[in-house]
Amino acid sequence: MYSLSEVARVHTDLGPTDIDHLQRLVANWGLLADLSFTDLLLFATDASAHRGGTAASSTRQYVVLAQVRPTTSQTLYPSDLVGSLASAVERPLVDRCYRSGETIGADEIVAEEEVAHSVRAVPVRHGGRIIGVLASEGLPSGGRRHGELETAYLNAFGHLARMVSVGDFPFPGTEDPLKELPRVGDGVILLGADGRVQYSSPNAVSALHRLGVVVQVEGATFGQLGLDEAVVRNSTGQRQPATAELSRGTHTNVLVHAVPLLGRSAVVGVLLVLRDISDLRRLDRLLVSKDTHIREIHHRVKNNLQTISSLLRIQARRVSSPEAREAIEESVRRIGSIAVVHETLSREAGDDVPFSDIARPIIRMVEESLVSPERPVRFGLVGDSPTLHADVATPLALVLTELLQNTVDHAYRGPAASTEGDDPGQVVVTVTGPVELNGRSSVVVEVRDDGVGLPEGFSLETSTGLGLSIVGTLVCNELEGSIAMTGRPDEQAGTVVTVTVPLERRTD
Q: Are the beta carbons of 487 and 498 closer than 8 angstroms?
């Protein structure tokens, strides 16, 4: 399906500001279609037929830039007409309207359909120029007398159509219309120039009842009905549409969209479209409540993990064996890395967290627990901060903790790693991602140190260390990733550990 701007660029000589005006009209014209009970077609002259000013009226072509169907009546055009062309002969009322600059209405026979229907052609002005024609096409009334609702809706459409013809509609500065703009079927109230209700549709009356308004509304102002008049004042005072949400307690919410009806020099009325959004707001509250509960759960899990860590520290102080004490301290750090993830999730909405928010606390935790004056090591974090799902972030946090522990324990321990009189050791964590690797979006975490390097004959596959065993299991089995440990490529002492983890699991 073609967009208005695409069709306009191909078929017309309209400038960017003209196209922008038409796009704002189309963004708001569902209201016009509903009020008129008709299909709306937006026509512009085809540039190929009039460039150079040599085309005669009989050869002028018109292109359909946009089309909308009413929700208050049946459509004449079940097929899409956007991008189609019609000659001045096929669309005589559109042609007359474009040439005269006046609104024209009549009954017309569409030759290819052989269906009689009512047509009103309204010139679309912008900057004092006619840039298109708005055709309102619907089934004729057949002499039937309009009811009160139809009369009120058609009168409102007449006001808005006149505003289109003089360039007052759409309103300037409404490039971003309300996404959930109410439709006419949701409920309509028409106010006169004095702000008093002239007509209210049955659905509007029902919406007002939910707000506690049970009196006769015709002839009363919003204030007299006990409703906030700010939306009406803003609309009439600024001569612009205004939107407000009226509430009654915590369970009733009505969205009000006010459109000023402009006369030649003053506001002659206000069209109010109402929509009961109580169920939507109830769902919003449920989502907020659910999100709050989930974050509270993460907070409690973090607290429980910290409690376990405290108990383990107490146990470590009672252990006389250095090996046992070191094993308990390693477990405390592992639990702490998981607690970091839950603490981050308790502050964030949803299950996704920036990895830098996890990596920094883990680096600080390792620094505080392992680095000493006898073994000075400095850590750094560089690169990207990809957002990871909790299912990836939690095991990857454990992996980073193990790698940093392993680096401090082995790269800077022993006579070969003595730093006395030298600069402290440097460990840099680099995060890159997301990147496409083997057809999968992945994150790459690299831990680079300038320590003693890998021992002779080292193999990751045959390593029996608990930390590297945990890393291998988490990366390869749980995260479906890969890990590599190599010497530094710059021929300096040290080790580079590269962990590559896909951001999404395979489903096959």
A: no
